[in-house]
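Input record (one chain):
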Amino acid sequence: MIAAILQPGYLPWLGFFEQMHRCGTFVLYDDVQYTKKDWRNRNRIKTKEGILWLTVPVFGKNHRALKIKDARIDNTQGWDQKHLRAIRYWYGSAPFFNHYFKELENIIGRGWDLLVDLDIALIEWISSLLGLTRRIIRSSDLDLPQAANRQERIVQVCKAVGADELYDGQSARDFVDTEYFFNHGIKVTFQEYRHPSYRQLWMKENGFIPNLSIIDLILNHGPESLSILTGVYMKMPLPFIPPP
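The corresponding structure, as predicted from the sequence alone:
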């Protein structure tokens, strides 16, 4: 059985859900260190002027001691209404805006305390829209023993969910010891995702912009989104462009 193990993110990009599509069990790696200026609490949407960041404010200055599962949202800044206003303003004319926005509004506006709960609620909602019925597990629910290093921990997670293959992200090539995993009975394959192009708003103003939150795809293409993100309807594949 193939597993993918990713840290939860806020309204993730297409490649996140391509990994979900390719696996049988999807583990949200939430009991590791929270990192600032990362994808746990922010993502990007498209505007007429280009890219707009949507960031969920998180309490705490010493994030080195903070695990993802414990990161608390600072709800004093009205971030939820700011995000919803931005999405409504810039995507109100998108073909499927009226199909999905109310549900998105209900989730974002629920008054979350923990960032991980917000992230996972959105991930589960998006996966249901895409028709992805994968088993989704939080790593913090596995009750694993202390590991000596990151690789041992990933092996522990794979074993706990019954996986004999790990479908990992492209950037993991730099640090994953595939021989170590092989010696523990786990095959490692790496994502080689080619970002598809698709119809977006504001194409005349700034062309196609890749690596946005998947809501850009969903609000523009609705039920075709899974086929597009997996390449079935890909017309002009683009090379992967790392986020800034």
